From TrEMBL:
Signal sequence, start to end: 1-26
Coiled-coil regions, chain positions: 96-145
Lineage: Eukaryota, Metazoa, Ecdysozoa, Arthropoda, Hexapoda
Name of the molecule in the record: Putative salivary protein SG1A
Keywords from the named record: Coiled coil, Signal
Species in which this protein is naturally found: Anopheles stephensi (Indo-Pakistan malaria mosquito)
Superkingdom field: Eukaryota
Length: 179
């Protein structure tokens, strides 16, 4: 009967452990996983055991439980640190969103201001181009007038030269000879 007590205790502990692990796994976040291999369960539940097999299975179960306890401790520590960082992130999220909205509003305002300045500069450039075109037309017009005046002046000089040739020379006024 002593031989049957240890496997029964081991089997009961393993079932308790599995139930505990299932409960923990159901409430734990996905990164925390505890693995129970098929060979471990088959060795614990096999009916034909020798005393050496039971002792080995018992030692395996104890080491497995120690490893599971360590894994759960590490898991809880990770969970606590993740919760703290999540809490900080959750507390910072509204501030981050507010700053993001403010920066977006500033960006939109700057964009609007730059568009207005660009439009103003484009209008000023168009005005300057129109003024330059008008001045160029006036220069061409003045150059045309100047050319016309120059041609008229040239014709006047030509006419003046023709009239000098056509008129007799004018005597010079001097002292009369018989006086």
């Amino acid at each position: 009967m002593g031989r049957n007590v240890q496997p029964t205790i081991a089997l009961s502990l393993s079932l308790l452990c599995l139930a505990l692990l299932a409960l923990i796994e159901a409430s734990a976040p996905p990164p925390c996983k505890v693995k129970v291999t098929y060979s471990m369960m088959s060795r614990l539940t096999s009916k034909n055991r020798t005393e050496g097999d039971c002792a080995e299975a018992w030692m395996d179960l104890q080491s497995y439980l120690q490893q599971t306890a360590q894994n759960l401790t590490e898991c809880l520590e990770r969970e606590a640190s993740a919760t703290a960082s999540d809490a900080a992130a959750t507390a910072c999220q509204p501030l981050f969103e507010q700053l993001e909205q403010e920066s977006e509003a500033v960006r939109l305002q700057l964009n609007k201001d730059m568009q207005n300045k660009l439009l103003y500069e484009e209008i000023e450039i168009a005005k300057a181009k129109n003024a330059i075109a008008r001045i160029k037309k006036e220069i061409v017009s003045v150059q045309g007038e100047f050319k016309g005046y120059y041609q008229q002046l040239l014709l006047i000089y030509i006419d003046a030269g023709d009239t000098r040739r056509a008129l007799p020379p004018v005597p010079t006024v001097g002292v009369l000879e018989g006086d």
